[in-house]
């Protein structure tokens, strides 16, 4: 009885059926001892790490390409709404997203709205991504007189607009406007930066302007854009610093704390 208790108990050595001690390295698990079990653990650990990394990559791709995009302002065309050195969060899901490396586009849950600050691919340069304000919708009639924007014959109150005392000037690139000029093309039509129109926005086209009207290269020069060019709606500023500062480490010493987490309107 004592021997049987020893064989089944916790304190005595394991024995064979004949009462002899079992050979080293062998046990009741088919010949695999503790060392064998330990050798298998790293393989499972590597597998779990690989799965976790893959999940992180998939989540990043989904968020980056279909939900949220980041954007950095590097020009002053949208001052004072957006400053050079503002880091933006852009809602891609609102406008819809293109599936990378395909021609497929996932529909958005909303349509562009007049007054939206939007990120888009401009028609004049496929390498650029711009941020401007949507001011003209399909069917609108737009005109500018002495820097004042008129929508369907009514002057617009635009508190976000920045104007300077720069002299008005003609630009040959604005002659595209003849194509959508109210009443048709005219020989005496010579648009300038501050005086142009009235223009009738055709179906499925949109007109974009920068808030800093006297320095912005925008729809006045390069024309209208299609709906599919919109990348997303700007939501908020998640970080901002003075990129023009001459102090060392401006991203650390010149942070604009008052702009962080500001909503963009």
In short:
The chain is α+β, with helices and mostly antiparallel strands and 265 residues long. It is 20% helix and 23% strand. It has a single domain (59-259), classed as Umud Fragment, subunit A (Ribbon), CATH 2.10.109.10.
Architecture blueprint of SSEs:
Elements: H1 2-8, H2 34-67, E1 68-72, E2 86-91, H3 92-95, E3 96-98, E4 105-107, E5 117-120, E6 130-136, E7 141-145, E8 148-151, E9 154-155, E10 196-200, E11 205-209, H4 219-222, E12 225-226, E13 230-240, H5 250-253
Antiparallel strand pairs: 1-2, 2-13, 3-4, 5-6, 5-13, 6-11, 7-8, 7-10, 8-9, 11-12
Overview of this structure, please?
Helices cover 20% and strands 23% of the residues. It is built from five helices and 13 strands. It has helices at residues 2-8, 34-67, 92-95, 219-222, 250-253; strands spanning 68-72, 86-91, 96-98, 105-107, 117-120, 130-136, 141-145, 148-151, 154-155, 196-200, 205-209, 225-226, 230-240. Residues 1-18 and 25-36 have low confidence and may be disordered.
């Amino acid at each position: 009885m004592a021997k049987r208790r020893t064989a089944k108990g916790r304190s005595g050595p394991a024995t064979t059926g004949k009462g002899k001690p079992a050979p080293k390295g062998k046990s009741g698990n088919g010949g695999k001892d503790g060392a064998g079990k330990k050798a298998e653990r790293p393989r499972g650990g590597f597998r779990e790490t690989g799965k976790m990394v893959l999940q992180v990559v998939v989540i990043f791709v989904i968020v980056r390409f279909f939900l949220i995009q980041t954007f950095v302002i590097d020009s002053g065309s949208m001052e004072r709404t957006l400053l050079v050195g503002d880091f933006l969060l852009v809602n891609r899901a609102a406008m819809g997203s293109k599936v990378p490396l395909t021609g497929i586009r996932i529909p958005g849950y909303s349509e562009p709205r007049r007054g939206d600050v939007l990120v888009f691919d401009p028609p004049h340069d496929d390498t650029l991504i711009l941020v401007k304000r949507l001011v003209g919708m399909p069917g609108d009639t737009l005109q500018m007189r002495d820097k004042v924007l008129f929508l369907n014959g009514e002057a617009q109150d635009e508190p976000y607009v920045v104007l300077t005392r720069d002299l008005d000037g003609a630009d040959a690139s604005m002659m595209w406007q003849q194509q959508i000029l109210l009443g048709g093309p005219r020989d005496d039509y010579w648009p300038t930066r501050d005086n142009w129109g009235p223009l009738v926005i055709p179906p499925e086209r949109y007109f974009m302007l920068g808030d800093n009207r006297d320095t912005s290269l925008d729809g006045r020069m390069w024309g209208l854009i299609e709906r599919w060019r919109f990348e997303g709606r700007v939501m908020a500023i998640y970080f901002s610093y003075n990129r023009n500062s001459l102090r060392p480490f401006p991203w650390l010493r010149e942070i604009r704390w008052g702009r962080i987490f500001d909503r963009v309107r």
